[in-house]
Amino acid sequence: MSEIIQVGIDLGTTNTLVSVMNKGKMKCLKFGRSEMLPSVLYVNEDGSIEVGEKAQAKGVIDPNNRIKSSKTWMGDFYKTWKFDGLEVTPTLAATEILKTVKANVMKRLKVEEGTTIEAVITVPAYFTSNQIDETRKAGQAAGFKVTRITTEPMAAAIAYGATLATDDKLFVIDLGGGTFDISVLQVNYENNVYDNLAVDGDKKLGGDDFDETIFKYFNQIIQEDLEIDLSSLGTSGLEYGQYYSMQGRLLQAAERAKVELSESDEAEVLVPNLFTYEGEEYNFETRLSRAKFDSLCAPLYKRINQTITDMIKRENIDIKGIGRVILVGGSCYIPAIKENVEKIFNQKVYTDMDLSTLVVTGACILANSQTGVEKVQVNDIISHSLGIEVVGENGQELSRILLKNRKYPATEAEIFTTTFDYQEVVTINVYEGEDEKDLTKNEFYGSFTLEGIEKAKKGVPQIEVTFNFDESRILEVTAKDLTTSACKKVTMKKGEKIISGEQSPIDFMLLIDASGSMSIGGRMDEAKKACNKLIEEMIDLSVHRLGLVDFTSRAELICGLTQDENKLLDTVAHITTGGSTNMHHAIKIANNELKSSINDKVIIIVTDGRPDNNEEAKAMAKVSKQSGIRVITIGVGNDIDRELMKRLSSVSETNQVEFYQINNMNKLAETFKTIINSLSRQ
User: Fold this and answer.
1) Which value, to the nearest 10 degrees, does the dihedral of the CA atoms of residues 574, 580, 586, 588 take?
2) Residue 387, C-beta contacts closer than 8 angstroms, at least 6 positions apart
3) Distance separating alpha carbons of residues 679 and 682, to the nearest angstrom
4) Residue 469 in contact with residue 475, Cβ under 8 Å?
5) CA-CA distances (angstroms) from residue 408 to 94, 150, 380, 489, 569?
6) H or E element: which one contains 174?
7) What value does the CA radius of gyration of the chain take, rounded to a whole number of Å?
8) CB 188 within 8 A of CB 46
9) Rounded Cα distance, 49 and 95, in Å
10) How far apart are CA 101 and CA 111, in angstroms?
11) What is the DSSP letter of 373?
């Protein structure tokens, strides 16, 4: 029988650690001279990837070919780092780091190729289910048999329980390089049971933010000293290599100063020969006091304290019942963080164990317990609520079905209905988050449609939506019409769009009225939100293309046909209002943009008023339709000319005029969705 090795892995934003059981004791394996592998990648000219100390060193000189803090972007399907002939996703970055970990395990333990290495990998408590799934995929791609993904606070609690051999209710505060987590856990040491009671955190807050704060301060000192602008290569006046080397070395100096200030009241900073300016070498030298550091980082401390106190209040936690407060993660060595936490809980925090290795030790204990005599039972909870989009009084809202902090596996069902008469299809848009009133503050999870529903007046059909979340954190959603028995069960995949990639490509041109009236009552702000949802959630840009035209007293092609989501979102963000309504010119521009397209072609016009010239608008729309372009119009409010809008619009295959009238801009996103659904069924 081939050998099986169990390891615990702390896949960190800044550093990665791996621990194994050696003669009954946990042991962190070294990568060279250190137990910590910098979670940094460097892409060489030949496309090869280096990980760790060498990558970090090369990245200081050439940060444009470096990837750091990739864990911050885990689960973001739109984030990539592009190099010549190579595109790296956050999941691929994690895979490369974990490949280095696996190679080191095999080298240090002198095991042969083909040996099964089972791994428990830790993630932040506030990671979404998708982020957890991508971490699992990275571990598998690196060659590990991933037996479990557990949270960092849970691993810390296991290490604590095993070391002190005592029962306690713990409040674990984990501040790593890129994420901030807080958890309440109950330890039952005698039975080896660990219960997660509550979680919260901030996925975009960590040690990197403190480094960046000092880095910006150092830049400010240089700018004032030399009267130059270091915000970009172009404004600095420096050569390419000099500028990026300077920025990398300055960030490194900021990181060192932060670490030094954890032990000293003042850090002396000296970076000789930072760059050449006006023919002379510039040496950067300054002193940074702990008081100044605390002043610069006050907004970050406030975010940390607020997250903790908000969770205590929201979850009705009795702080007197907390046995110990445990700090985890290298950033918790910052003195002010410890002092602030002690004030909140009115007790000394537990820092007797190495904060940097606490998590990986717990992961290793859990990994070895899977096959050992003493099993460790971990009862974890859902870190974010899961629900579906519904139409509320003020537009699109979230109806939460599985609530945050519920133990999983979990199953829950609720009844929903239709929003307009004789609706033939419903779209189930799944979101992850807590804000029931503002859907945009939640994270889109996936989408599917249910057909064959009861044809009746709105509000009559009874559609049961069931969420099933299993131990592997895989979400299965079922929608069933209780009258017709039409049913669809889907294993959700994060980020699935409403239009599937199986469709023929469509080129969309979206024409947005930006006349002066759109500035009234926040109409343009609502229109932009709807456009963002169209771009991010409704149109699959891996299949289709979208272009944008805005029209005031004149019309302008503000974004040509593209599949670049970031470009489209940035264009929408910069639309401004003013002037009249030159619609015919906008249609003409759209016709020209679609002229050479070999795909299906659609123009969508959104307006809250009347065109400057009705006849020219009708003429240009006629040209569109004669050219095989489908024209769909959306009129907002009561100031539109309904008959004109109908004349501009195409007629569908079911003999319906493709004109939609809505009372206010809050309904625009819903209307976009109806249009996209109709296109996806044809």
Assistant:
1) -150
2) 398, 399, 400, 401, 402, 430, 431
3) 5
4) yes
5) 26, 13, 7, 20, 36
6) strand 168-175
7) 28
8) no
9) 11
10) 14
11) S
Q: Which amino acid is at 661?
A: Q
- How many CA atoms are closer than 13 Å to the CA of 412, on its beta-carbon side? 17
Answer whether 607's CB lies under 8 Å from 523's CB. no
Encoded tokens for 514 = 């930006």
Q: Quick one: which H or E segment has residue 677?
A: helix 668-680
Residue-by-residue DSSP string for 310-363: HHHHHTT--GGG--EEEEESGGGGSHHHHHHHHHHHTSPPB--S-TTTHHHHHH
Judged by DSSP in three states, 615 sits in helix
Name the token pair of 193: 């049971």
Per-residue pLDDT tens over the stretch 266-306: 999 999 999 888 888 999 999 999 999 999 999 999 999 99
Peptide bond into 153 cis (omega under 30): no
Residue 39 · residue 69 · CB < 8 Å: yes
Query: Quick one: tokens of 659?
Result: 């004109």
Candidates 138, 148, 65; CA nearest to 102 is 138
pLDDT tens digits for 155-169?
A: 888 888 777 767 788
Tell me the pLDDT of the chain averaged across its residues: 87
- By the 8 A CB rule, do 454 and 487 touch? no
Q: Could you report the per-residue pLDDT of 115-127, keeping only the tens digit for each?
A: 899 999 999 887 8
pTM to 2 decimals?
0.65
Residues of the chain with pLDDT under 50: 1, 373, 497-502
C-alpha 408/C-alpha 467 separation (Å) is 12
CB 380 within 8 A of CB 393: no
Rounded CA separation 222/219 (Å): 5
Do the Cβ atoms of 459 and 492 come closer than 8 Å? no
Instruction: Establish how many alpha carbons lie within 13 A of residue 522's alpha carbon, considering only the half-sphere containing its beta carbon.
Output: 5
How far, in Å, CA of 493 to CA of 425, rounded? 21
Residue 608 in contact with residue 579, Cβ under 8 Å? no
State the amino acid at position 526 in one-letter form: E
Cβ proximity of 160 and 349 under 8 Å: no
Look up residue 401 and give its two tokens. 């079905």
Q: What angle do CA 274, 277, 283 make, to 5 degrees?
A: 35
For 69-137, give the DSSP string.
Answer: -GGGGTT-TT--EEETTEEE-HHHHHHHHHHHHHHHHHHHHTPPTT-EEEEEEEE-TT--HHHHHHHHH
How far is residue 618's CA from residue 621's CA, in Å, rounded to a whole number?
5
Torsion of CA 314, 318, 322, 325, to 10 degrees: 40
